[in-house]
Specification:
2 domains, 6 helices, 231 residues, alpha+beta, 5-stranded mixed beta sheet, 3-stranded antiparallel beta sheet
């Protein structure tokens, strides 16, 4: 997600610069000297609009659309819109004299923290998904009459997700660079898990049959080196 986020940052900063002076949110309601609709900033990936007096949907063709309205913010994309009401009981300055310096002074820290959280979530989700695969893969291995312990099944699932992760990373990079439309990017993200399943199923065929007797003329350590999932 690094490339798409980097495409959003210039739009966010340009949008902050274009907010009329004196615009702020007071007790859950937008207050601004500007009335009507104004396009603050946009590119192919993100658009930001200010609509004081209404919270209608944006007509922009950007992949992600944000509408700053009177009683809340609309965030939408190809799947529809979500309305986010303002926090009641707070006064939030939105004009360039207040919001932009706050953002610029914390942008680096927010990037580092955000990327670290994303990396941790990716590792945790990878491990959790591999654990979920242990039971169905164990049933499938038993049905195929293959030899593999639970620990080895977890290793197989863990490494089997790698091809799908590569596909998702390439799709994200191409989307962030502007070579892939949003629809095709979402399709690639939906297909990256079934893509990993194909590799996992192919790996199951490399497992030894459960009824195969060991070869006394082959050293066990040599067999283990050839197949890491037998360890």
């Amino acid at each position: 997600m690094v490339c798409p986020v980097l495409q959003w940052v210039p739009v966010l900063e340009k949008g902050m610069e274009a907010v009329p002076e004196g615009t702020h949110v007071r007790f859950g309601k937008l207050q601004s000297p500007f009335h009507g609709s104004r396009q603050l900033a946009r590119n192919r990936f993100l658009s930001i609009e200010l609509r004081n007096g209404s919270i209608a949907r944006s007509q922009s063709a950007s992949d992600v659309r944000m509408v700053v309205g009177e009683k809340g913010m609309l965030v939408g994309s190809i799947a529809g819109y979500v309305q986010l009401p303002y926090w009641n009981g707070y006064v939030i300055a939105l004009d360039a004299q207040n919001l932009l310096p706050w953002w610029l002074s914390r942008k680096g820290l927010l990037f580092v923290v955000g990327w670290m959280l994303a990396a941790v979530m990716l590792v945790v989700s990878w491990v959790c998904l591999s654990l979920l695969y242990v039971l169905p893969l164990g049933v499938l291995i038993r049905g195929m009459k293959r030899l593999c312990s639970r620990q080895r099944v977890f290793k197989l699932a863990l490494i089997g997700l790698f091809p799908g992760a590569v596909l998702a990373s390439i799709a994200t990079l191409l989307y962030g660079l502007g070579y892939l439309p949003l629809q095709e990017y979402l399709l690639a993200m939906l297909l990256h898990l079934p893509f990993s399943w194909i590799w996992i199923l192919l790996a199951l065929r490399a497992l030894p049959p459960s009824g195969l007797s060991p070869n006394p003329f082959v050293i066990q350590a040599t067999q283990d080196r050839r197949n890491p999932f037998l360890r």
